[in-house]
Write a structure and sequence with these properties.
The chain is mainly alpha-helical and 451 residues long. It has 19 helices and no strands. Helix 3 (48-84) packs antiparallel against helix 10, helix 12 (286-304) runs parallel beside helix 16 and helix 16 (364-380) runs parallel beside helix 19. The longest helix has 37 residues, at 48-84. The radius of gyration is 22 Å and the shape is globular. The two termini are 36 Å apart.
Length: 451
């Protein structure tokens, strides 16, 4: 029964897609809350400089997390492909090789964050009064980076197997421990930023430990032995698939830092308003992000089974479902952006600037669902190099230039700066639609030649 439930090559596409997607969405929602809790608790029980330190330090950690998550997408796609091909024997070698690779990567990143924490904080232009706190946050998270990476890799493995329920359980555990840790270390012991960082690392460590206990009790559709845990040929395969996604995530996060710098020049209210709006836009992007992850695993199985027509139907189904949900999200963000902003701020001027940005950004809720459905389709086909190219084209040809141009206008409006995001996404949809036509024609040509 469990095997059939995780088999995406048969049955209702919409029903199975939504059932698989909901736990992923739940996990992403909790992760977004996870990051917001640190700021909220430090803001209430810590100091103003502590808020700045957590915000700056967490942006560095998040950049690493998103990059590693993009790299682990290669593992997710390959596992889905092997399951679709009924080639489960390769999964053990893939997981063993991935474990060794990410363990080595964790050590390297830990050394970088521990040794270069202060230069990194200065590069991020952390305020002088928050500099030492920012350095402390980066170093503590750097010391526990192995747990943070392990969580993302373990979750990617289970999504590739068609199991999105366990990653949700893992993030629930982490979220509960993080909230408890924040309240204990920051509110009770008054440890400010250090307490928030310790809570983050502790939460991930507990989540990883309990996830390994849960995994031992699960019936896995493959066998894995000690000899699988070595550097092997599977590493180059998943890195080839995942590295373009990881590079795109890295460049995208860097572009967001640049956008923040553009807006910072407009003054404290604009900067604070954008910071609040950013927390809300993170939640807006959850449906498209969960849709893309779901489609990648779903489509990879069908591609592995040779069901190309079903893979295309899955993408169209994702576009329809994402656009339908996105319409309601867009209306909420456009008309009630001020109420949403009130959750994170109390200053009327900051709330007004946040709502101003959200009006321009609102359309992103719909168009990103369309774009990410295309990206899920191409990720499921191992076309991650194209996904990277179109992502960089959007960022550096449209989003950043439009944002910069709008920011230097006299009486610059955050609404016009916010419009840069959906403009870039629409440009990306056009690129992907053209490439989709070219790619599907190439597949049909290959099938005809085989016949």
């Amino acid at each position: 029964m469990e095997e059939n439930k995780n088999d995406f090559t048969q049955g209702s596409i919409l029903k199975k897609l939504l059932k698989f997607m909901l736990p992923i969405l739940g996990a992403l929602v909790l992760q977004a809350m996870y990051g917001a809790v640190d700021v909220l608790v430090v803001g209430k029980f810590g100091t103003t400089s502590g808020i700045s330190a957590v915000s700056t330090g967490s942006s560095i950690v998040n950049m690493i997390i998103f990059t590693v998550a993009g790299l682990s997408m290669g593992v997710t796609v390959l596992i889905g492909r092997y399951i679709g091909e009924k080639n489960e024997a390769m999964i053990g070698k893939l997981i063993g090789g991935a474990t060794c690779f990410f363990a080595a990567l964790s050590v390297a990143l830990a050394v970088i964050l521990l040794v270069f924490a202060r230069p990194i904080a200065r590069l991020m232009q952390a305020p002088e009064e928050a500099l030492d706190l920012t350095v402390s946050y980066i170093r503590i998270c750097g010391g526990g980076i192995a747990f943070i990476i392990a969580y993302n890799v373990i979750s990617g493995i289970f999504r590739g197997m068609g199991n999105s329920r366990l990653p949700l359980i893992f993030v629930i555990i982490a979220c509960v421990v993080n909230i408890a840790g924040d309240l204990l270390f920051v509110a009770v012991f008054g440890m400010n930023v250090v307490g928030a960082a310790l809570a983050t690392v502790l939460a991930q460590a507990v989540s990883v430990a309990l996830s390994l206990v849960i995994i031992r009790r699960e019936k896995l559709p493959f066998k894995i032995s000690r000899k699988d845990f070595r550097f092997n040929g599977q590493i180059s395969k998943f890195v080839r698939v995942g590295s373009p996604i990881a590079f795109q995530e890295l460049m995208t996060n860097i572009s967001f830092l640049a956008l923040c710098a553009f807006i910072n020049k407009l003054g404290l209210e604009a900067s604070s308003g954008y910071g609040v709006a950013n927390k809300i836009t993170a939640f807006v992007m959850l449906v498209p992000s969960s849709l893309m992850q779901s489609l990648a695993a779903f489509i990879a199985q069908n591609v592995g089974a040779g069901l190309e027509k079903r893979a295309r139907k899955t993408m169209l189904c994702g576009i329809g479902a994402g656009a339908f949900i996105g319409t309601f999200v867009m209306l909420l963000v456009f008309f009630k952006g001020d109420l949403l902003s009130y959750i994170f701020a109390s200053d009327p001027k900051v709330i007004a600037r946040s709502a101003e940005y959200l009006k321009g950004f609102a359309l992103e809720a719909i168009v990103t669902s369309v774009l990410f459905s295309f990206m899920g389709y191409f990720n499921g086909h191992n076309q991650t190099l194209w996904v990277m190219i179109q992502g960089l084209a959007q960022t550096f040809l449209v989003r950043l230039p439009v944002s910069w141009y709008m920011s230097i206008q006299e009486n610059a409006s955050l609404t016009m700066i916010g419009i840069a995001a959906p403009c870039a996404t629409i440009f990306g949809i056009i690129l992907n639609a053209v490439y989709y036509r070219i790619y599907t024609n190439r597949i049909k040509g290959g099938l005809n030649n085989n016949e």
